[in-house]
Design goal:
Length: about 550
């Protein structure tokens, strides 16, 4: 099939799911009366999402991130359930569960009618429930003893609030009966699950910004590049499922037409890796934020999702450099998930399932986050606007809107269509030919870099070099510029254009004097200086390396 035919096919096939748009009337907001800034976050979110004022609740809670089990129950859990019932948002009733799988028939009290599906916890609402050594409960036989613990994430404990009158045990995780649901109607309090997310972070301003960036990406779409960081584990390794989730996540993004980088080395991305224009990031397993995310500026696109799998990735949200969730939010991510205490791998979100629901099926962030969580009453916190739905429109609709507004984001939509065509069988030649003749390529560093990549795959070194040099003149982002310079340098060296390569690497250092990988650039320049018989430069770069 030629490129034009493939492009039309993709436009017809990649349509947004026909899901009802979630609205503010489905949301209840909770803030902490004692935490400065908490109420302002709540009121801002209510205004931006048109949440009815009567569905904003303030509770008197500790300003610490950790609360006791007694305080959680008496100051938040039970008062919230009573308020939802008294305000007519919930109705409790008796439900008979028929005998199945050897379990006897039982009658339980639960929510049988609900006008809301989402709960938004605002900056200042405690993050986690401390272990209670005085809580004694019988523990099911055959369950791993390390799960016999009652500490939990506030979010995850509130997610089963519709069953608060059913008297489930507090020790250990509770199976998420909505896990893997393909019908969003099942993600409802009447099915025993409340979709809990928080607008949180190191400070109230960062929490508010999560709303703005979500709304921007809903309007414009989520564009950019996707990055995935496996550990390269073998299938016999007990931690292999984590690697499998990340590999599957990368393939989902690739199949959906995103420029995708998948690293399978044991180390996480290094600080000198040029991570540009980030739409999605998933990796593991560093204790604290590392690599490109420690730089002063991180190129998160508006609406970006960033997730690092670690047992204590959300041990605190109020730090910009400890663990992962807080720093990712401080550097510009729009939404994330994390764990507040040790969850064990099987108790963490299946990030591939999350991305499949969110990106391919058009779920809201809150729906996708809890659909991908195997257990409740455990350790997961979900951070971001739960109504956030950047993939709710088809590509043709997005295209028409962006063109009408003369948005520069059209270049990313064009890139995605090209990558979709390639995934679905279009030839590299056809894709390159399309970019050559598209007027938008002339002024787009993104598309010109892609054309250079395609020329490289076709074995056209001169055209490849020419296109990378053109891309550098079209205003690439700082990290994109570094990536192009590195790639261009390698291509020039392959063609024995050593002086040009030498000049290119020197320009990289001039343009990015704080580049963390400058030692590696000194080493390249040293080797080239020797080839070019530049003794003074040889001595200079030897000294710089030392």
């Amino acid at each position: 099939m030629n490129f034009w035919g493939m492009r039309l096919t993709i436009f017809l096939l990649i349509l947004a799911p026909l899901l009802a748009q979630a609205g503010g009337d489905e949301v209840v907001i909770v803030y902490n009366k004692h935490m400065p800034g908490s109420r302002s976050v709540a009121e801002y979110y209510a205004k931006m999402r048109q949440v009815p004022p009567k569905q904003i609740y303030g509770f008197s809670l500790t300003t610490d991130e950790v609360m006791s089990r007694d305080e959680f129950r008496d100051a938040l859990q039970l008062p919230l359930a009573r308020r939802l019932q008294s305000d007519g948002l919930w109705q409790f009733g008796s439900v008979t569960n028929l005998a199945t799988n050897g379990e006897p028939q039982r009658v339980e009290r639960r929510v049988v009618a609900s006008k809301i599906r989402y709960l938004v916890l605002c900056y200042g609402v405690p993050l986690k429930i401390a272990p209670d050594p005085n809580l004694k409960e019988p523990f099911p036989k055959g369950v791993n003893p390390e799960l016999n613990r009652n500490e939990a994430a506030v979010d995850s404990e509130l997610a089963w609030l519709p069953l608060v009158e059913a008297n489930f045990p507090l020790a250990g995780p509770l199976q998420n009966w909505a896990y893997g649901a393909t019908n969003t109607a099942l993600l409802n309090p009447t099915n025993g699950i409340l979709l809990v997310a928080r607008l949180d972070g190191p400070n109230a301003n960062i929490a508010k910004a999560l709303v703005d960036k979500a709304l921007e990406a809903e309007r414009d779409g989520l564009w950019g590049r996707t990055y995935f960081d496996m550990r390269g584990l073998g299938k016999t390794d007990s931690y292999y499922p984590g690697d499998k989730w990340i590999a599957e996540s990368a393939e989902i993004c690739r199949q959906l037409g995103f420029e995708t980088t998948l690293d399978d080395k044991p180390e996480t991305f290094s600080m000198d890796f040029p991570m540009s224009q980030i739409a999605i990031y998933c990796g593991w397993y560093d204790v604290n934020v590392s690599g490109p995310f420690t730089l002063p500026q991180v190129e998160f696109m508006p609406g970006a999702f960033a997730y690092h799998l670690h047992s204590f990735s959300a041990d605190t949200l109020r730090s910009e450099n400890k663990n992962w969730c807080g720093p990712l939010l401080a550097k510009g991510a729009t939404c994330t998930m994390g764990c507040v205490y040790e969850p064990y791998l099987t108790g963490t979100p299946n990030v591939a399932a999350f991305l499949a629901r969110w990106m391919a099926e058009g779920f809201t962030f809150g729906e996708a986050a809890w659909d991908a969580q195997p257990v409740l009453s455990w350790q997961t916190t979900v951070i971001g606007d739960p109504l956030y739905r950047p993939f709710g429109k088809s590509l043709p609709v997005r295209h028409a809107e962006l063109v009408r507004r003369h948005s520069p984001l059209v270049e990313w939509l064009q890139l995605r269509v090209i990558d979709l065509a390639l995934v679905h069988g279009a030839s590299i030649y056809a894709a390159g030919n399309y970019l050559e003749n598209a007027s938008i390529t002339t002024n787009s560093a993104v598309l010109t870099e892609k054309l250079a990549d395609l020329y490289g795959q076709e074995g056209k070194p001169d055209a490849t070099i020419d296109m990378y040099e053109r891309a550098l003149k079209l205003g690439p982002s700082p990290e994109q510029r570094i990536r192009i310079r590195l790639t261009l340098g390698g291509k020039l060296e392959e063609q024995d254009q050593n002086q040009e390569a030498y000049d290119n690497y020197q320009k990289l250092l001039q343009e990015a004097p704080d580049y963390p990988g400058r030692i590696s650039i000194y080493q390249k320049l040293l080797a080239l200086a020797r080839k070019l018989n530049k003794p003074d430069d040889v001595a200079r770069y030897e000294a710089l390396i030392q």
